[in-house]
């Protein structure tokens, strides 16, 4: 879908992130079990955050994704959306349920009895060091991201 078609079909409220069908004046789409708001049109499903970006800015460049800054998949307000690479988007994920540290990029090295900090960039793992506690390991992770990516 392109910007012209999106604007013909919908009215988008950038403050609320809600789409309204222009022909019926009803809210378009619904929230899926995975938390994303999806809108169906001509037997195809569109994620509302992608439609919001297209509606406001035009096409999404190849190899880019739209990220929910606050991690709330149903919040499609334009201030909550940003254009990112896949690598950047993966750093905004929730920590895994099996993560013992509670921090991204930090895991327990049982062989050395220390917390290890690491970052994966473009498929390559960068070890950031070993630490006595998970908080110190997380601080090293945050500092590495700040210097190299933000």
Describe this entry's structure for a reader.
The strands form 4 sheets. This protein has a 3-stranded antiparallel beta sheet. Strands 8-9-10 form a 3-stranded antiparallel beta sheet, with helices on one face. Strands 1-2 form a two-stranded antiparallel sheet. The protein is 25% helix and 33% strand. The protein contains 4 helices and 10 strands. By secondary structure, it is of the alpha+beta class. The chain folds into 2 domains: 3-85, Homing Intron 3 (I-Ppo) Encoded Endonuclease, Chain A (Alpha-Beta Complex), CATH 3.90.75.20; 94-149, 2-Layer Sandwich (GCC-box Binding Domain), CATH 3.30.730. 19% of the residues are buried.
Topology:
Layout: H1 3-9, E1 10-13, E2 18-21, E3 30-31, E4 37-41, E5 44-47, H2 48-57, E6 64-68, E7 81-85, H3 86-90, E8 106-109, E9 114-121, E10 124-131, H4 134-149
Antiparallel strand pairs: 1-2, 3-4, 4-5, 6-7, 8-9, 9-10
Helix pairs in contact: 1-2
Describe the main β-sheet briefly: 3 strands, antiparallel
Head-to-tail CA distance between termini: 31 Å
DSSP strand (E) fraction?
A: 25-35%
User: Unreliable stretches, pLDDT < 50, 5 or more residues?
Assistant: none
Report strand order across the widest sheet: 3-4-5
Overall CATH architecture of the largest domain: Alpha-Beta Complex
- Provide the residue-averaged pLDDT: 88
Number of helices: 4
């Amino acid at each position: 879908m392109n910007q012209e078609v999106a604007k013909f079909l919908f009215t988008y409220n950038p403050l609320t992130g809600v789409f309204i069908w222009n022909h019926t004046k009803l809210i378009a789409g619904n929230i899926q079990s995975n938390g994303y708001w999806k809108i169906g049109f001509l037997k195809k499903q569109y994620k509302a955050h992608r439609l919001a970006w297209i509606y406001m800015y035009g096409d999404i460049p190849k190899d880019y994704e739209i990220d929910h800054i606050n991690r709330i998949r149903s919040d499609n307000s334009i201030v909550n959306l940003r254009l990112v690479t896949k690598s950047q988007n993966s750093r905004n994920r929730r920590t895994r349920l099996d993560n013992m540290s509670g921090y991204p990029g930090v895991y327990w090295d049982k062989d050395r009895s220390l917390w290890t900090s690491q970052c994966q960039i473009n498929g390559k793992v960068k070890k950031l060091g070993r630490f006595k506690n998970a908080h110190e390991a997380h601080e090293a992770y945050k500092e590495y991201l700040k210097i190299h990516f933000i």
